[in-house]
Amino acid sequence: MNSRVAAQDPNKPLHQALAEFRRQLRKFLLASENAAFEAGLQPQQHQLLLAVAGAPAGRSPSIAYAADTLGLKHNSAVELVDRCEGEGLLERAEDSEDRRRVCLRITPRGRKLLDRLSHVHLLELNSQGPQLIESLENVLRNQHRQRKRTGRKQLG
Amino acid sequence: MNSRVAAQDPNKPLHQALAEFRRQLRKFLLASENAAFEAGLQPQQHQLLLAVAGAPAGRSPSIAYAADTLGLKHNSAVELVDRCEGEGLLERAEDSEDRRRVCLRITPRGRKLLDRLSHVHLLELNSQGPQLIESLENVLRNQHRQRKRTGRKQLG
DNA sequence: GCACACTATATCGTGTCACGATATACTTTG
DNA sequence: CAAAGTATATCGTGACACGATATAGTGTGC
Question: DSSP letter string over B97-143?
Answer without folding.
Answer: S-TTSEEEEE-HHHHHHHHHHHHHHHHHHHHHHHHHHHHHHHHHHHH
